[in-house]
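Board notes (copied after class):
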Amino acid sequence: MDFELTDDQLELQRIARDVLDREAPASLARDIAEGSGSADELWATLTSLDWPALCLPEPVGGLGHGWVELAVLLEEMGRHVAPGPFAATVAQFVPAVRHAGTLDQQERFLAPVAAAGATGTLAVDEGAGTWDLDQIRSSATRDGDSFVLSGIKCFVVDGASAEEIAVVVRVDGGLRVVVVPGEAVSARELDPIDATTRHATIDLEGVRVGHDRLLVGSDSEDVVVRAVQEATVGVAASTLGACQRILDLNLDHARERQQFGVPIGSFQAVKHKLVDMYCLVERTRALVYFAAAVFDSDDDRRAIATSMAKAGAGECQQRCVQGGLQLFGGIGYTWEHELQLFLRRAKVGELHFGSSSSHRRRIARCAMSAP
C-alpha cells in the first residue's frame, strides 16, 4: 500500500496543531490534574469547529471524512495531551453505533454528536484488561418491551460523565451493542494515571433500557469486532501523538542542556537513544496510518492491521518513556515538568484496549491462519 497524507490532510494537521497550541496548552492538562481546570471550554471550541462531525456520515449531519483524517486529529490530541470527551466519543462511541445501528438509530444517537457535541463512550472490558470479546459475560435479557442488563464494565473512558454508553453485551448468546444512558448506570471513577483521561467502572446490574436501544443494524458479531478494532486504533493514534511529543521534548533538551561545555546532544550515547526513539515513533506512525487506510478502504486485513498498530504504539511508549526519563534525569520525574503529563498519557495508551503482548499474540494467530 503506497500511502502519504494528501495536501488536504496535511492542511488539516496544520490547522489542528494551531488550534490545540492555542486552546490546549500543557497548562490546561496540569490545571485539570490539580483539580482547578475544566475541559468544557475546549470541547465547546472543538464542537464549534465541527471536529466531532468530521468523520460522521453525511446523513446524520457529519462531514463524511474517513479514518485517516480522524487519525490526524487523534495524533494531535495526544501530542497536546488534550483533555475532554473527543476520543471516547468520536473514536469509540461513534464506530459502535455506526457499524451496529440501523440508519434510524444512527440518526438518533449520532446526529446530536454532530450538531450539539453530545458525548458518548464504549464499554467492553470486564476486568481482565485484555478487551477480549470472548471473555464478555455481561448480558441483556428480554423482559417485555425492554432489556434488563447485568454485569460490570471496567476501564470505561468517561464512564462517569458520558451522556450515552455503547455497551457490548451478550443477547441470546451472541455479542450485541446496547446504548445505555449514562445517568442510568452506577459509575465509580478510578484513581487516574493520566488525570486528563478519566476511567470508570460501571455497574449494569438491573439497568433497564427500551428495546429500541439495542442496535439492530446487523446481527453479525463482526460489526462489534470492527467497532472495537477502530477504537483500538484510536488509542494507538493518541499514544503516537504523546510519544512524538516526548521525543520533541527530549530533542529540545538535548540541544539546550550543556555538559562539559557542549550540548548533551553531541554525545554519542545520547544520539543513539534519540535515534532509537525517532525510529520507533516513525514505525508506529506507519502502522497507525496503515490501519486507518485499511479501515477507509474496507480492506480485509483489519484484524492484523489493528494489532500491529496497537502493539507498535505500546512498544514505542515503553521505549520513549524509558529513554525520555533517562535523558532528562531527575527533573523528568517531577510534577513541575511537563514531560510527566505526556508520559502519563502514553502509559495509559499502552494498556488501554490491550497491551503490546496481547496484540502480538493476536498477530501470531492472524499470521498462522493466513492462507
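Comment from the instructor: The chain has a mean pLDDT of 94. The chain has three domains: 7-118, 122-213, 222-369.
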